[in-house]
Amino acid sequence: MLYLILLLPFLLGIGCAFCKEENARRLTPVLAAAQTVLTALVIYAAVSGKDWATNVVYLSESLTFSLKMDGVAAVFAVVTAVCWLLTIPYAAVYMPHSGGEPRFYVFLFTTEAVLLGTALAADMVTLYLFYELTTLCSAPLVLHELKKKAIIGAYKYLFYSVGGAFVALFGVVVLYFHCDSLSFAAGGTMTEATPLTLAAVFCMILGFGAKAGLFPLHNWLPSAHPAAPAPASALLSGLIAKAGVIAVLRTIFFTAGAGLLRGTWVQTVCLILVLISIFMGSFMGCLEKELKKRLAYSSISQISYVLLGLFILSPDGFTGSMLQLFFHAAAKIAIFQCAGSIILLAHKTRVDELRGLGRRMPVTFICFALVSLSLVGIPPFGGFHSKWYLAIGALKTLPGAMGYVIPAVLLASALFTAALEALPGALGYLVPVTLILSALFTAGYLFPPVISAFFPGHDTTGLDLSPIREPLGITVPLVIFAAICGLMGLFPNGVLSVMESIAGAVA
User: Fold this and answer.
1) Distance of CA 361 to the CA centre of its chain
2) pTM of the prediction?
3) What is the rounded distance in angstroms from the CA atom of residue 362 to the CA atom of residue 374?
4) Block mean pLDDT (10 aa), the chain, length 507
């Protein structure tokens, strides 16, 4: 089964290489049908309850290439397959205007194959292999349009991702000699927390974190995301960047062990770096005037929330991280697709050009508004639940309580209280201030474009307000993603129970 899950998208990608440009439109039904089958297989493997595991290559007792479907792999694999399925109709409308459709689909599906491999990896060697392949397969998606900014963006992406992987490789080599096994096990396999092993773990977190936009290895995102075609930039932000998150998660909870890292300098430094990432991404997003670049800075901030939950090193923090991974994928893919729709149909690329556009493209901007509410973390949308669990995780777990709790009626106040009560020293102030400022900045760079789009003001002289036809291939995925953020935020019990059960077994 696991072989088939990896093989099917890989064969789809290879098959697309033999399709001529003029016949590219005929690919859509075939690709959609094949991706539907793949999605069904992934969901079946995830919910069947069977112990799906296999050794691909056996080199030695401590060095194998193996696959396994555990709880973490199941969540990420299902999210990946569903998001790829919803991207196909969007790409079918968008890519004819960008050109090079067969080439685009080759790397789109090979990227999916190696991304699924990253999720299903049962040991660090396998994960590292697929992690590197994810970079090599997805870089051509950034390079696709072959313009100057695309070339620069692709080179930056390769430099930071490959460079980060080499930093992580040092840690992998060190831990090879200080772990019982490089195979993943809940609670970790590292034998002791020495200065050398802690340095190795930090190198792995920092190196793998480069793909997730962790400061100071974040600079590729604002260049790569705007350069890629909208279907690619949506997946790059929503899922491909999370290959780094999966690698960090496996490093902390399945290799090193949260118990050995809790209270060490590694946890403290990682918390500081992720807080810088959250604040910086939100702040820079407010200053940026180009729409896709603004959303790229937003990705730095929002993905850092996922890392924040991991660095808390608690079940609640882990739950918040998994929830953020889930809801951020839906919201960020949707909002990048909204941006692509605006660029494609209205030929607008800057935030200050969106005035009145909500009346011309109502479906696109309604979806933009709904997923923005989720990204800000406003209840009852999905993003609220993930950020709430992050705060609760900090409150329950991290040492250095200050001895008082300020009653909270607003989310910002609750976040402030939770962090002040639980975090040690200066972090007790850095965390709440950063979270509140980040929420305000997120609202500051997402809400004004929506308001301007729907309420252009009384003076509309010279402003084109004629309706723009929004193709179903674009609007249907947007509506589904917005519905996920809204409905699963209103009725979160099913998603919460899954994430809490995974956290209970892992953290």
Assistant:
1) 27
2) 0.84
3) 19
4) 85 82 75 90 84 67 76 89 90 81 87 92 89 90 84 87 89 83 80 85 90 84 83 86 89 86 84 81 77 82 84 81 83 87 84 78 85 77 70 58 26 36 44 57 66 68 69 86 81 78 74
